[in-house]
């Protein structure tokens, strides 16, 4: 697999052949004294720690510090995307989000794609993410995933150009957008001169777009809809983001105990009495939303919430049951969904995928475990997976036994050589692998801010970018056309 570096077109990494869209930044970087950049790095860490931009790590296996809050490392060398590349990505992301929403609606209504034999019926109806409680339920605008975090990777190819692939779709409670916004704020604080020199597309208006998207799905008759962010509480790994987004949108952050359902209507308890809630941006999983319908032992949700939802008196974003479309076993069928629902060819390719539930695919995977990445279909955070080239023989054999015991629970993909980007590490500047999570908002139209969250695998050679496994983040710059304005001239 050919290696692709975002900044340098030539090898070795230190070569002088800088890609055109990085040239101005690279010239600036070469003039910066090392001690100045180190001081800026320390300043960023101090501010992030003071503000409380942390990520709680729990559930990690054999890892010291599991359950503790950690600072997500921030790297001050941005990932830069030229305007033409972003335009292609944007069209492909909008196409994909539209098809996924059509699919979720179909699954809970006509099931045309199942009857057509394009997606196996048992894969959906026997899936733990399928929610029979949603069959026939009408949701505003037939939009189920108002917020999608779609993970994009770039891999090198034979002609030296990188090709973008969709790695996975996150449609339940996608996180990370607060880090995208805070990374931009930090870069503008540390290096304001860069934003005067580069026409960087803004991202600061994301909370406004999000609030507009949420208000757009309010029940009819709500002229000034009340929106709340529903959080599991301060012990959740992404609590900082929940509080941040509520504050940025100017809406209330609530827990399940703050809500009550009366006459199939959701109310929020306030110091002035009950106040009706029209839209809930929920950041808790389906299972914990309503103890009357899902887990009876849940103290995180609100009893009766599904009654109000079915009655059309409250909107829940993302909708209950969206997980059926971001299950990794369903991922291989998304290109077929685009063709089926939209009559179009996919603009963004999937990573080639073997479905271990199929006998021939399983046989191939078992014969090539040392070459492949094998993922648990319900896994997340980089856990429940095997990276064959980085695994020991004993780890491969242990995983082989697990895979053979439950082949339907896994998919496999080639080990992509994810693109790299220059990154500050202890030894200086070195290439580290990255991915990109743009955030796609679907309401009356499909919208997104330019860029997204770039995650970086800080360990040398690592392909795992997840924050829970030591990954960091970068600011993502989408360069506007020559006629565009620099974000440095806009409010941050």
TrEMBL record:
Which SUPFAM superfamilies has this protein been placed in?
Glutathione synthetase ATP-binding domain-like (SSF56059)
Which stretches make up the Circularly permuted ATP-grasp type domain? 78-457
Protein name per Swiss-Prot or TrEMBL:
Circularly permuted type 2 ATP-grasp protein
Which organism encodes this protein?
Answer: Comamonas antarctica
């Amino acid at each position: 697999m050919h290696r692709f570096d975002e900044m340098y077109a030539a090898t070795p990494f230190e070569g002088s052949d800088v890609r055109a869209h990085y040239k101005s930044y690279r010239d600036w970087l070469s003039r910066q004294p090392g001690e100045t950049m180190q001081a800026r790095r320390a300043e960023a860490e101090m501010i992030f720690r003071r503000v409380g931009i942390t990520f709680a790590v729990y559930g990690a296996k054999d890892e010291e510090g599991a359950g503790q809050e950690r600072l997500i490392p921030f790297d001050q060398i941005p990932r830069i995307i030229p305007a033409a590349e972003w335009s292609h990505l944007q069209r492909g992301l909008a196409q994909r989000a539209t098809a996924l929403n059509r699919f979720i609606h179909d699954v809970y209504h006509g099931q045309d794609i199942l009857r057509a034999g394009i997606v196996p019926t048992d894969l959906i109806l026997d899936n733990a993410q399928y929610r029979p409680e949603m069959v026939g339920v009408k949701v505003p605008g037939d939009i189920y995933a108002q917020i999608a975090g779609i993970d994009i990777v770039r891999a090198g190819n034979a002609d030296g150009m990188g090709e973008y692939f969709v790695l996975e779709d996150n449609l339940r409670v996608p996180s990370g957008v607060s880090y995208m916004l805070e990374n931009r704020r930090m870069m503008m604080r540390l290096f304001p001169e860069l934003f005067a020199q580069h026409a960087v597309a803004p991202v600061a208006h994301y909370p406004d777009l999000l609030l507009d998207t949420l208000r757009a799905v309010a029940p009819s008759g709500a002229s000034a809809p009340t929106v709340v962010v529903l959080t599991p509480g301060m012990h959740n790994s992404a609590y900082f983001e929940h509080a941040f987004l509520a504050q940025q949108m100017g809406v209330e952050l609530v827990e399940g105990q703050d809500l009550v359902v009366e006459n199939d209507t959701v109310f929020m308890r306030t110091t002035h009495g009950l106040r009706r809630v029209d839209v809930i941006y929920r950041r808790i999983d389906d299972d914990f939303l309503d103890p009357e319908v899902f887990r009876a032992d849940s103290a995180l949700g609100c009893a009766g919430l599904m009654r109000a939802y079915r009655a059309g008196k409250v909107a829940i974003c993302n909708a209950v049951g969206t997980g059926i479309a971001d299950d990794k076993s369903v991922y291989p069928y998304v290109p077929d969904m685009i063709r089926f629902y939209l009559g179009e060819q996919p603009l963004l390719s999937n990573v080639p995928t073997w479905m271990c539930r199929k006998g021939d695919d399983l046989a191939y995977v078992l014969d090539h475990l040392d070459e492949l990445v094998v993922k648990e279909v319900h896994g997340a955070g980089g856990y429940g997976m095997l990276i064959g080239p980085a695994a020991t023989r004993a780890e491969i054999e242990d995983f082989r036994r697990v895979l053979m015991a439950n082949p339907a629970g896994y998919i496999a993909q080639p080990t992509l050589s994810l693109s790299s980007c220059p990154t500050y590490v202890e030894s200086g500047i070195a290439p580290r692998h990255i991915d990109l999570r743009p955030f796609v908002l679907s309401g009356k139209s499909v919208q997104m801010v330019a860029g997204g969250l770039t995650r970086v695998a800080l360990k040398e050679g690592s392909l795992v970018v997840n924050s829970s496994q030591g990954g960091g983040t970068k600011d993502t710059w989408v360069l506007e056309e020559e006629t565009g304005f620099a974000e440095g001239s806009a409010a941050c």
